[in-house]
Design goal:
Blueprint lengths: L1 E2 L17 E8 L2 E7 L16 H10 L2 E4 L4 H10 L2 E4 L8 E2 L9 E2 L2 H10 L14 E2 L8 E2 L2 E5 L6 E6 L4 E6 L2 E2 L10 E2 L1 E7 L3 E3 L4 E3 L4 E9 L2 E9 L7 E4 L7 E2 L3 E7 L3 E4 L1
Parallel strand pairs: 2-22, 4-5, 8-21, 15-22
Antiparallel strand pairs: 1-3, 2-3, 6-7, 9-19, 10-11, 10-23, 11-12, 12-13, 12-14, 15-18, 16-17, 18-19, 19-20
Length: 276
C-alpha cells in the first residue's frame, strides 16, 4: 500500500515504476491511495507505505499474494484476519521496514522488494506459490481499433486529478498527478503505463465516522480499456472476492491488453472521466 496524499514529502513516491499493476482508489476525504503489485520486479525503496483499506483487499485476494501495509482501518484489519490473507504488516513485522528521518511521520515508512521477498521466504510458512488468472495480453499488431484516446482525464478532484498523455513512439501513457508530471523518486523516471483500466463502481459507503469510504467491486459495471491510443468500452465482471476481475467488450469477448504494465482507476459514480 503506497500513499498518494498531496502532503509535503509524499510525492514523488518510490518504486511505482517497477510495478506490474497499480490500483488507485479513493480512501477518505477525496484522497486516493495506491496498491502496487510486484511479480518479481526489484525496487528500492518502496513507499511511503500506508495502511490497509477494505476495497483493496478485494483486489489483493485475486492474486493470493502477500499484502503489505502498515496497520489499517478497523474493518480492513478484521477482514484480513477473516479472509486469512497472507499479509505483512509493518506494525507487527517492523524488521522489514524503516523510517526516513528526513520526512515527517507517518509519511516516512519505507521498505524494498528484496526485504519483502525475504520476508515471504523466511518469515512465513506460506508453502503454495501465489496463483491467479491472468488477463489476456497480445502483441500490438493484434490489438483492435477503437475510439481515439490520446489524452485521458480522471477527475478525482484538485490535487488528485489524473491525466494520462499518450506517447506514440513508446506506445505508453505518461501520468500527471495533480497537475505535475509524476516520477519515481528512485530513478526520476516518468511514470508510464501501457494500459489504463477505468473501472466504474457504485457510490461508496462511509465507515467508522472518519470519512473513510469503501466501494463495492464485485458484480459488474462499466469499464473503459485504453491502450495504444485507442479506447474500448465494455463491462467488468467479478463474481466474488476471490474471483478475478475480467473485462469484456460489447460483443461479450474478453478485452485484450497491450503487453506491459497496467494502472487501474476505480471511479465511483459521480466522478467523471474524459478522453480525446
Amino acid at each position: 500500500m503506497i500513499e498518494n496524499a498531496a502532503f509535503d514529502g509524499v510525492r514523488p513516491q518510490s518504486g511505482l515504476s517497477a510495478a506490474s499493476v497499480v490500483y488507485e482508489i479513493i480512501v477518505e476525504g477525496g484522497i486516493t491511495r495506491l496498491m502496487a503489485v510486484y511479480a518479481g520486479e526489484q525496487a528500492d525503496p518502496v513507499g511511503p507505505v500506508r495502511s490497509s483499506r477494505d476495497t483493496y483487499l478485494e483486489f489483493a485476494s485475486e492474486y493470493n499474494c502477500a499484502y503489505v501495509h502498515a496497520g489499517g482501518s478497523y474493518t480492513a484489519q478484521l477482514a484480513i484476519d477473516n479472509f486469512e490473507l497472507r499479509d505483512i504488516d509493518a506494525l507487527r513485522e517492523y524488521q522489514w521496514f524503516w523510517r526516513d528521518s528526513s520526512k515527517y511521520s507517518p509519511h516516512n515508512l519505507f521498505t524494498n522488494t528484496a526485504n519483502l521477498y525475504q520476508a515471504i521466504a523466511e518469515g512465513h510458512s506460506w508453502i503454495e506459490a501465489p496463483t491467479y488468472v491472468s488477463w489476456q495480453f497480445v502483441d500490438d499488431a493484434k490489438l483492435p481499433d477503437g475510439i481515439v484516446a490520446t489524452e485521458v482525464k480522471v477527475n478525482y478532484g484538485g490535487a488528485y486529478n489524473i491525466i494520462y498523455t499518450y506517447n506514440p513512439e513508446g506506445k505508453y501513457y505518461e501520468r500527471t498527478n495533480g497537475g505535475v508530471l509524476q516520477i519515481d523518486n528512485n530513478n526520476d523516471r516518468t511514470l508510464t503505463t501501457r494500459n489504463i483500466i477505468i473501472q466504474h463502481v457504485p457510490p461508496g459507503s462511509y465507515i467508522e465516522g472518519k470519512g473513510r469510504v469503501n466501494f463495492s467491486v464485485t458484480g459488474e459495471g462499466v469499464v473503459e480499456i485504453i491502450r495504444n491510443g485507442v479506447l474500448t468500452k465494455g463491462v467488468w465482471k467479478k463474481a466474488n472476492r476471490l474471483d478475478r476481475t475480467r473485462f469484456y467488450d460489447e460483443t461479450g469477448e474478453e478485452i485484450q491488453l497491450a503487453r506491459g504494465n497496467s494502472w487501474v482507476e476505480i471511479v465511483p459514480e459521480g466522478y467523471t472521466v474524459e478522453w480525446k
